[in-house]
Amino acid sequence: MTLNTSDSVSQEVQDHLIQLAKASIAYYLDANKEPNRDDLSHIETGISDPLLETERAAFVTLKLDSHLRGCIGSVFPTKPLTDEVIHQSVNAAFNDYRFNPVTESEYPNLKVEISILSQPSPVDHYDKIDIEKHGIILKKDNKSALFLPKVATEQGWDLPTTLTHLCQKAGLELFDWKSNTEFLVFEAFEFKE
Q: Does position 188 have pLDDT exceeding 60, yes or no?
């Protein structure tokens, strides 16, 4: 499935997944455990889109007052999209090591963004990366880091700046991207509330 057209994921499915993400975080705040589908059956809307049951990798990004509050996801698909969004919503809210866990007082103002990823594929040279379209995975010396497609454009970075920040994120030297580095790219269908 390609994810680069605006009609790849219906508005109904987008709305459902946002609602599912918010309900997953609320459930964890109340019960102190990750919900399963049965725990969230009260928000089921009767949507029967096959995408919801397709194994997909996804990221959930949380913002509070337009600032990053958490972002965690998967690169390779391991579970149906519905279950992936539940899991990554809880991860982004409570397990992102860069932030304290989301609190009940923050919850009402939390904004959710979801990125559904395509399968990553290797590129033979970094100059094949289109930072306006591609998410990037950088690998070198058993270290790796990832940026979603929106990161470079949101930050106003060009490709060298993006790759330098990826090296920094991976714990590498800043210009390690220039040689003997593996790159994978992917696309993402991104939507937010």
A: yes
Residues 171 and 35: their CA atoms lie apart, in Å, by: 34
Q: Which two structure tokens, joined as six digits, stand for 76?
A: 């390779």
Helix, strand and coil content of the chain, in percent to the nearest 5, comes to 40, 25, 35
CB environment 74-113: b (16+ within 10 A), e (fewer): bbebeebbbbbbbbbbbbbbbebeebeebeeebeeebebb
Per-residue pLDDT of 34-82, as tens digits, reads 999 999 988 766 788 899 999 999 999 999 999 999 999 999 999 999 9
Distance, CA of 131 to CA of 125 (rounded, Å): 14
**pLDDT score recorded for residue 150:** 86
pTM > 0.90: yes or no? no
What 8-state DSSP symbol labels residue 37? T
- And the tokens for 97? 């090591």
Question: Do 40 and 71 meet the contact criterion of CB atoms below 8 Å apart?
Answer: no
| Amino acid making up residue 41 | S
Residues 6+ apart with CB under 8 A from 72: 59, 60, 88, 91, 92, 95, 96
pLDDT score of 136 more than 50: yes
